[in-house]
Write a structure and sequence with these properties.
Dihydrodipicolinate Reductase, domain 2; 9-stranded mixed beta sheet; 19 strands; Rossmann fold; alpha/beta; 2 domains; homotetramer; about 400 residues
Amino acid sequence: MAQGLGVAVIGAGMAGKAHAAAYRVAPTLFDPVLPPIRLVSIGDANPQFGDVAARRFGYERTDACWQAIAESDDIDVVSVVVANRLHLEIVEGLLAAGKHVLCEKPLADTLASARAMADLAAGASGLARVGFTYRRTPGIAYLKELLDTGVLGRVLHVSGRYWTDYGASPQAPMSWRYQGGPGSGALADVGSHLSYVAEFLAGDLQSVSGGRLSTVIGSRPLPLAAVMGHDHVAVSDEHADVENDDYAAFSATFAGGVGAFEVSRVAAGHANSLIVEVFCENGAATFDQRRPAEIGLFLNEGPTARNGYRQVLLGPEHPYLASGLAMDAVGVGFGQNDAFAYQARAFLEEVAGVDPTAALPPCATFAEGVHNMEILAAVSESALHHGKVVSL
Amino acid sequence: MAQGLGVAVIGAGMAGKAHAAAYRVAPTLFDPVLPPIRLVSIGDANPQFGDVAARRFGYERTDACWQAIAESDDIDVVSVVVANRLHLEIVEGLLAAGKHVLCEKPLADTLASARAMADLAAGASGLARVGFTYRRTPGIAYLKELLDTGVLGRVLHVSGRYWTDYGASPQAPMSWRYQGGPGSGALADVGSHLSYVAEFLAGDLQSVSGGRLSTVIGSRPLPLAAVMGHDHVAVSDEHADVENDDYAAFSATFAGGVGAFEVSRVAAGHANSLIVEVFCENGAATFDQRRPAEIGLFLNEGPTARNGYRQVLLGPEHPYLASGLAMDAVGVGFGQNDAFAYQARAFLEEVAGVDPTAALPPCATFAEGVHNMEILAAVSESALHHGKVVSL
Amino acid sequence: MAQGLGVAVIGAGMAGKAHAAAYRVAPTLFDPVLPPIRLVSIGDANPQFGDVAARRFGYERTDACWQAIAESDDIDVVSVVVANRLHLEIVEGLLAAGKHVLCEKPLADTLASARAMADLAAGASGLARVGFTYRRTPGIAYLKELLDTGVLGRVLHVSGRYWTDYGASPQAPMSWRYQGGPGSGALADVGSHLSYVAEFLAGDLQSVSGGRLSTVIGSRPLPLAAVMGHDHVAVSDEHADVENDDYAAFSATFAGGVGAFEVSRVAAGHANSLIVEVFCENGAATFDQRRPAEIGLFLNEGPTARNGYRQVLLGPEHPYLASGLAMDAVGVGFGQNDAFAYQARAFLEEVAGVDPTAALPPCATFAEGVHNMEILAAVSESALHHGKVVSL
Amino acid sequence: MAQGLGVAVIGAGMAGKAHAAAYRVAPTLFDPVLPPIRLVSIGDANPQFGDVAARRFGYERTDACWQAIAESDDIDVVSVVVANRLHLEIVEGLLAAGKHVLCEKPLADTLASARAMADLAAGASGLARVGFTYRRTPGIAYLKELLDTGVLGRVLHVSGRYWTDYGASPQAPMSWRYQGGPGSGALADVGSHLSYVAEFLAGDLQSVSGGRLSTVIGSRPLPLAAVMGHDHVAVSDEHADVENDDYAAFSATFAGGVGAFEVSRVAAGHANSLIVEVFCENGAATFDQRRPAEIGLFLNEGPTARNGYRQVLLGPEHPYLASGLAMDAVGVGFGQNDAFAYQARAFLEEVAGVDPTAALPPCATFAEGVHNMEILAAVSESALHHGKVVSL
């Protein structure tokens, strides 16, 4: 570590590139300077993808297998950004080699694998953290601050929705996304983020009920070409049945309130809309991912005739933005790439053992990653049993 | 009826006044002129209330009991706008006397009473209708038109919320609203409207599940003076327990889609926010009572880069507004008093047996009123049985 | 007047019908009951139009010429709602006959005629008032209340726009609207409302400068059929030149602030958008006709991090809505037909000499009508002299 | 240049840090990889500021005077981000030394200095560019694309406002911002951006008229401590007169349309709101800096009843976002730091002589910087001559 912490990213897809860029930006955030880091390797089974990403983001090399990274003495810190079903094997290898690991969410493809990973983490010398980036979203973070400091008072109820539209067209071609068991559809895809945010704000989730998993577009045309991401390729006249959930709903009891939640992959007009409303004793607050640079805030104070929801534009007095980016004036804007950079910074600070930047809470542990998967499993169980209450 | 249909309103509270004003305005809506009507009586147990309303809205007299109205030969049409527990007795008397009855929703205080009223209606010579005014809201009506004409395509899922805040402050004094059995709180209060609108849009509701009834503010201070409406009178140090639901949630299966719904009386900042989103195969549409003069509309057409939710301002090309009010240009605005007038017009047209105005669907029957109460009863039953599915 | 004030409306077009309906509703607004009124006559040169309106709104008869109304002993109060160029002759006749006159804005087609009318009004026994309905718009009225009560502090600057789109398409056919001298286009059409609202809020307008009148669509196709209102009839290949202003801009100095204003008839997507922003020492407020049931309000108070523009939903604590309509709860909504009713009520109260309803300021005088036309004339003069300052 | 282009930034304030960070990120944007660059020096008269910034953003050293940078053989590219009055001297020195210069806007403190700089640029071997970052704002860039590709048709009129509130409180202390000649206040501060954006969209500005410069808060309290930025330090009872414009307005004629514009530094509730509306023959579009991740779009197509302004969320199909940032999905967000990175990238591409990235137009020339200052000078001249037309 004489030359600084060596960093690698496994996976050169879009999220992998976000991790790769984030490590490059992380040292420039906030004033206290991090210990030096070296951008060493981007691993990808497709050497061309890895090579392009390495050159673009300034990494020294690319590796074609994760084992090469696990074995490298010049690498200390590794982001794992590959298919969920590969997480267990790779993370096990990296932790065994003493690396510090930041694994993308969800922690694994099955709850059993996730629990195995948490066990490994408990015994590992390196740190094991999971990447829930929504705690790095300034609006969500400010809602939490308003709750933690008592401005809003006790939480009464929470309402959340995560609408996406990648499957909204009945002509969107069949793909692996539409196959799998109950809960492997919209619930797994975006319910993970929504339940994470709900619990981040409202405290420990104790039980769910009213689980509902619905397939509302029963079959989809077979594609005539390979489907990359959410692309709408040409389709054939043949159809196959959709196996998992287009839509899911559930309600929940938290430490200090209740709430109801919906997710969808067939919500026309919504690319990526996480929406959350928190109702409390002293007021209420809302966040809508479509307008990420603001929150809605209502406070029970002053004359009723003049009161109403406020559009609070996020700026240098709000979490992450204060002294975070180079330019930090009001209205300066921010994005998910910045959120990944904040995450990388928090991880590097914890790895380096430096005093954490006050504004920057640490990354979630593997235990938290398991817990998040348990919530989704409970929703599926409730749905399979016609809405019954499932405790966590 | 030589001098026209005689009209009476029983109840001179706020909603009663809305009915009284509506009969006065109804003949002026749309071009075909109604048969003549006479504004005869406003009944109220408090003669002073009845007298003021009669003078203000131009009714000939006031009556201090409903029996006097039932016995009057010069009255043909009666709106019943009194406490729900009085509906059965009064409607029974009016129907027995051959009157045409427009009863405010919900139809009764208990499902048994509502069913008895529907039986009476089936055997009565006069019409028996229930006042669901939301079908008279131009935005809701336009959503239905978009669905009925196929513009939006098949419904996939529906999401609805009805937020109110009259109990949002823990200092709001104890009153009858906070007393009663499960489902008699927020669910009865505003869930009736929300479930009506959902079914109006998405078709027959077949089952509910995941019912949840939550009391999130457990006790309230006793008032030191009589509580009128939602007034926040001075309170004592003593508290009493809240018995019924501050918040309710459920999900539902409709003829052609699914959905999830929430209602609250403790949602800070929301006086009266009915919000509904309909997601369909060809697009999606939303209505928000806070901005009643517009809907949100997304259509799956044209280049993605230019697409997005449209703010459609309601005007003369939309239901009710076209040739309805005297001034009917775009941006002319409208309100719930107008909705009551449309309702009175539809009721009078049906009573008079004239060709109905095309734009004006008839009022809901008592059978529909019973069905709406059955939905809420099913939600309460689901809640009592930990979220189970309850078929209708 | 034994049987009550006799009311007539001259003109049975859309605005005439709004006046006709308004007199019918006026007595029902607010609690103190008006002296009795009789709805006597609707005058229109087209007897069929007059007849339909009389039957629809419950007037006793129709008259085919204004002289018949002037000569009727049973008529005390007359609204004049016809082409501007006819105002002088009709109002002169009505005032000579001792009637009370409510004349639609603008007061006349020329400043000279308007001044002559103001002279006639000064010597008349009857009241002469002009119908600026925007002071009856609850949002505008609340902005004024916030200014008058000192909540917002001294006005610094005002910004206003009135966008309409009836000429937005280059294919909108040539009509009389596109003919006439400088300032007879968009400026006369909607600038009248905008300047009225600006002065209502910011106090006496002292001078204008930077007048600009622009014809941005130089020619329009000739219609192949008569153009009614803003209809887009079939057009020929032949075009004629547009003579007057599609767009106008000016800035102004008020008693206590400055401001800039724009109007357009070619603003795509805006049917009827009057938008005004008032910036003051203690905060700021905005009104947008597209969302008439709310205002935007910013107050310089409390922590900056929590502050922002509030969406204040108008309800029973705001002007006109408090105890005005039958149903007056929050979120009940309202429209321009209601504004006409408030105006009719204020006029009838002044005619009857009763104590005015506190919430209901009197109608504007003819002198105010002249002043409003002088402002627009000053804008045109500034435009003709390349933007120079013109004092009022 | 064997080891890559050497980069320096002169000025370590907030904007200087944005430039410093931007050079670090620039190579990672878009797929084609830039020639190598070296981050060499951050210059600042305050060595501590320079040192912190150099360490934070990974520059090799700091220099305490610009001459050291001009003389360094290892520096090829220099951003100048210091007080406007220093631009001429420093840029002259850098160009004489053969450096490529990116100078922050406005080009200089006086028009004469700006013209001198343009003359120097014309004879220099290095590139001379000025940093108008608003062309890097995805929403503004998409408006331009909609205009350039004919989707919106010919521009009819443009409306723009730039509201800021740093002087909104009458208690904001006196500072250098409130001193200087006509036009040196709000007009110079934010009018530069607004007029740049207007011309970027509507084409060459040919003349202005109706210039208005208003001081609406006449005096301000003297500060009791040094004022940094817009800080509200403690103030004394003594006041001094404000010398320059709190508010400015003007209208303009462009190559193909007209428009009106306002700027303010006393607009309560607006930290930094650049708002622009473009009205065209086929539709209209709007941008509002408060919601930077979307534009408003109206297109004259399809049935009127379903039409309205669309909220187009910016994503990978829109300028700069497509393949720009590491993560480039819809709803990923972005900010002004990203805009600086795009600008740095465009400048480096031009310096390196590589094929420019298609999505990335070059930076503005010094001639454009002079022209922008001439527009503001014309507004001031119009204001001094009571609103007269001033041609450019």
